[in-house]
Specification:
Elements lengths: L4 E5 L5 H11 L6 E7 L5 H9 L2 E4 L5 H8 L4 E4 L3 H4 L2 H18 L3 E6 L24 H15 L4 E5 L2 E2 L2 H4 L5 E2 L5 E4 L6 E5 L1 H14 L7 E3 L3 E4 H12 L3 E4 L3 H5 L6 H13 L1 H6 L3 H7 L6 H8 L7
Parallel strand pairs: 1-2, 1-4, 2-3, 4-5, 5-6, 6-11, 7-10, 9-13
Antiparallel strand pairs: 8-9, 10-12
Helix pairs in contact: 1-8, 3-5, 5-6, 9-14
The protein binds NADP nicotinamide-adenine-dinucleotide phosphate.
Length: about 325
């Protein structure tokens, strides 16, 4: 254990970080050891990680001193922020800054920052194709992450900027699965027209991240985008139809209709899907499944993910 390089994993009890911890502890090469960060070391999910062989330590991304302690002695860190816990881009930026400062303090050799695009570089605030939200954002949960990239760069951190994709797990946990309409038929709603949406099994992000840590120098200072597959709404509906054994229609709504659905974050997500739709070729190009597969040969496609997870998708 002592000769292993420690990776401090933020969000270790969550989707991205959890996948990385599981990838590290099951990696036969044994090159790395996982240090799982959590706010509550006594929570069931934290105990499960300890059972798998991770070192579990307390830290809160809103407390930079706790991050400094948790990063000390580590070789690298996986940094992710938690927009949906508070829905504040300013708080998210502060979380990223605190992690970058702690990484600098600890003198880490490799940091993976799980980021997304600052969409304002493509859609300036003056572009009225989509509304400006919270005064200065187009896609709040993307923009603050992209804006925070410069903090890692300015501190001179050896960073890999990891562009993630839409988790297919959103169909299970985020209320995005097919819903029954008044006619009793299932429909899958996505405001993407006929454009492709890069998606990924959340568990695969961590597997890709482990490979990036292993490759080290090749990825430091670089941006890497990961996706399992690029699929249209119609293709997703067809795959759902096959997997669930009942018809699922693609309910293609305009982004403006999606923004008005009224659930918390609907406007943010409406703008996000419109950005992905309007800049399909850039957005898909930045997330090449072949690159992800070269990092993680067991990368899942939508069909493989569905075969394993279809029974977990709530249908009513
Ligand atoms: N859903 C998608 O399709 C998607 C796609 C790309 C990117 N993202 C981004 O992914 C990010 C979230 O990552 P995730 O999905 O891996 O998270 P997640 O599964 O929601 O996990 C959240 C974890 O974050 C930890 N956490 C929350 N607040 C914390 C704090 N103040 N300090 C320390 N830890 C804290 C919690 O751990 P403890 O309770 O153990 O402390 C929790 O287990 C978001 O910013 C989102 O925008 C999402």
């Amino acid at each position: 254990m002592a000769d292993k390089k420690i990776i401090a994993v933020v969000g270790a009890t969550g989707a991205q970080g959890g996948g990385l911890v599981r990838a590290i502890v099951s990696d036969k090469s044994g090159e790395f050891a996982a240090r799982a960060l959590t706010r509550d070391v006594n929570a069931d999910k934290a105990k499960e990680l300890a059972k798998l062989g991770a070192e579990v330590v307390a830290a809160d991304v809103h407390d930079v001193e706790s991050l400094k302690r948790a990063f000390t002695g580590a070789y690298g860190a996986f940094c992710v922020t938690f927009f949906w816990a508070h829905m504040s881009p300013e708080k998210e930026f502060a979380e990223a800054k605190a992690m970058a400062q702690a990484a600098k303090h600890a003198g880490l050799k490799h940091v993976i920052w799980s980021t997304l695009e600052d969409t304002r570089q493509w859609v300036p605030l003056s572009d009225n194709r989509m509304p400006t939200l919270m005064g200065k954002y187009k896609v709040p949960h993307f923009d603050a992450k992209g804006e925070a990239n410069r903090v890692f760069t300015e501190l001179g951190l050896p960073t890999t900027f990891l562009l993630t994709s839409f988790y297919w797990d959103n169909l299970i946990h985020f209320g995005m699965g097919p819903k029954k309409g008044p006619d009793g038929k299932l429909a899958f709603t996505l405001p993407m027209g006929d454009k492709k949406l890069p998606g990924i099994a959340a568990e695969d992000i961590g597997k890709c991240a482990l490979s990036i840590f292993k490759k080290g120098r090749e990825f430091i200072g670089k941006t890497a985008g990961v996706a399992g597959e690029h699929v249209t709404g119609a293709q997703m509906a067809a795959a759902l139809t096959k997997a669930l054994g009942q018809e699922v229609r693609y309910n293609d709504v305009p982004p403006d209709v999606y923004r008005k659905f009224g659930f918390p974050g609907a406007e943010d997500l409406g703008n996000m899907f419109q950005f992905k739709r309007d800049f399909e070729s850039y957005f898909c190009g930045a997330r090449n499944p072949a690159v992800a597969r070269s990092l993680n040969p067991s990368l899942q496609t939508f069909d493989t993910w569905l075969a394993r997870n279809k029974s977990r998708i709530p249908l009513e």
